[in-house]
């Protein structure tokens, strides 16, 4: 994606890059360090192999992660966030905190209904 293809609004830009459910989950997992494909798939319950592969390729093309292939049999592939990928940590942490607060709010509201 070229700079000129990015939306003018920074929020739209962020959503264009990471605004899918699976990309957020992949980012969450890779914030803890390098992972293999099967490890990411296991933690992202419900994602198909095809979708995970496509999301990882897209995130690599956007510069959010790197893919390292080891020349061995069976092949070993690892995914690691780039510096720009790691810079999303505060965004992911804020989403996590907001989700926790929302769950507390809903629980409290249901208690009084």
How does this model look, in words?
By secondary structure, the protein is α+β, with helices and mostly antiparallel strands. The protein contains 6 helices and 3 strands; from the N terminus they run ααβααββαα. Strands 1-3-2 form a 3-stranded antiparallel sheet. Strand 2 (65-70) and strand 3 (76-81) form a beta hairpin. The longest helix has 23 residues, at 89-111. The protein is globular and about 60 Å long. The termini are far apart. The model has no long low-confidence stretch (mean pLDDT 93).
Using brief descriptors, characterize the structure shown.
113 residues, alpha+beta, three-stranded antiparallel sheet
Query: Which bin fits the share of residues in helices?
Result: 55-70%
Strand content: 5-15%
Helices and strands, in order, run as: HHEHHEEHH
The helix tally amounts to 6
Ends distance:
49 Å
Indicate the structural class.
alpha+beta
**Rg from Cα:** 17 Å
Q: Report the major sheet.
A: 3 strands, antiparallel
Strand order of the largest sheet: 1-3-2
Choose one word for the global shape: globular
Q: Find the count of extended strands (DSSP E, 2+ residues).
A: 3
Mean pLDDT: 93
Segments where pLDDT lies below 50 for 5+ residues?
none
Short recap of the structure:
The protein has 113 residues and is of the alpha+beta class.
